[in-house]
Amino acid sequence: MTTSSRPDAGAPAAVSEPEPASPAPDEILGAKLAALIRLKLDVSVTHLYSRGVRRHMRAALRAGATRDEVLAVVKLSTVIGIHALAVGMPILNQELAYARMPAEPAISARPTPVCDALRRDGNFNPDWEAIHEAAPDWLEGFLATGLGIWRDGVLPPLWIELLCIAGDAALTHMYTPGTRRHIRAALALGAEREQIRAVLEIVGRQSRDAYEASLPVLDDVCAL
To answer: How far apart are CA 166 and CA 205, in angstroms?
Structure first.
């Protein structure tokens, strides 16, 4: 009988080690921030899922969040109102031009120091230009209210950007310009790719709310 010249002849086949599982979003972001991001999704005006709001508030508080931090997330969820004008005003101006109708000139009797300061600092979003042209007083008041979230120090600047990524990338919002802008800002503040991917993974799981909201209703209807 001859034996194989292979050095591993007769040896059992090597068993490959399983690839390590990717860290869960809560491991990457921390339990508190992950809960606040989930709260941001459910409390948003584009979703308003009250059962999730209550659950994620409780989870955030258990993870050490303060009342002020939770309230800051709620406030942050209101600033997406500006997207209605950021999207709508340029389209209005285009359609007015196609229809050969003049746009109404904006008349502001008040100065706009907040807008002016943002321009000087290079932080004035180009998407706001059409709003500033048509409704400068509205934009000034809106920004004066919203910018307090960035300036009051309740939430770290990086956390705010990650929360804004979640809100803009949300399945019920999908605001591409804002998602890109806040990803860029988060990276400038030192965010790691894994952190942003963890945020997007949480966003992707938002679709599970459909089951939680619908299955009890389905059971009730089927029981009739």
So the answer is: 11
Confidence of residue 126 (pLDDT cuts 50, 70, 90): confident
The average pLDDT across 45-74 equals 96
Provide the Cα torsion 113, 115, 117, 119; round to 10°: -150
In whole angstroms, what is the distance from residue 129 CA to residue 216 CA?
46
Residues 21 and 30: their CA atoms lie apart, in Å, by 17
Q: What DSSP line would sit under 56-73, residue for residue?
A: HHHHHHHTT--HHHHHHH
* Model confidence pTM above 0.85: no
**Which residues, 6 or more positions from 215, have their beta carbon under 8 angstroms from its beta carbon?**
none
Query: CA–CA separation, 26 vs 209, rounded Å?
Result: 18
CATH fold of 25-203, please? AhpD-like (1.20.1290)
Give 181-210 pLDDT, tens digit per residue: 999 999 999 999 999 999 999 999 999 999
Q: At what angle do helices 31-43 and 67-76 cross, to 10 degrees?
A: 40
* Distance of alpha carbon 5 from alpha carbon 158, whole angstroms: 61
In the chain, domain spans: 25-203
